[in-house]
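New to this. Help decode the following:
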Amino acid sequence: MTTWVCKACGTQYPEADEPPGACAICEDPRQYVPADEGQVWLTWHDVVAAHEAEVRDDAGVLGIGMSPSFAIGQRALLVKSAAGNVLWDCVPYLDDDLIRRVAAEGGLAAIAVSHPHYYSAMVEWADAFGCPILIHEADAAHVARPDSAVQPWSGETHALGGGLTLIRCGGHFAGGQVLHWSDRRILFTGDIVQVIPDRRYVSFMYSYPNLIPLPPSKVEAIAAALQPFGFDTIFGAWWGRVVTDGSDVVRRSAARYIRAVTEPGLPS
């Protein structure tokens, strides 16, 4: 038997002789089944054989991606805190060389994933490093490959030590979480808070590929959840998606978004 990987989103499913009938992540309105080829499944071996790890510095934090790009194309980040390394978000790739590389950096004390689109191969990573996976309980139903390493947390914040705190923002997913690193005044957001091409702003959506906006109340809740935490830099989900002047960017972006969806005319 093998584990199966959805080609469209990169989610890894449990071992089985045959692939699942459908990918629950892609059938959700926040993702999609590609119209041109439909639901395509790959074995874990096929994914690993066709790709290699891309490990490089991204604005002072070690990033881990895949080459060539696969599925949604996000990169993970290795957050090296005094309480141990945390892998922020995850990618659908892992091989022996990458295990050795991460081990040389100090291994992993935990994996924390912003939302279900990036759960990908988180269980594969947790098995390799013997560490827990921290997700918010509101998103636990979206775990496609159940495992004892998955440890959902409840409430609005969860301290990891070393200046690291998980914050439930909701929005894109009910349990959408971000990671605040007080020692370096960094906020890691995946696309719960989306870094956009105009780096003066960030944005927020219920579904990015299908262009479904969030109601103003959800954006207000994200801004309120982040207000107590000071941060200068925001790391988004993809290579180079980094914003400075972070706290102010979130504040004025939330205000602009709410104006755009509640007031006549275009935002300025």
Remarks:
- The longest strand covers residues 52-58.
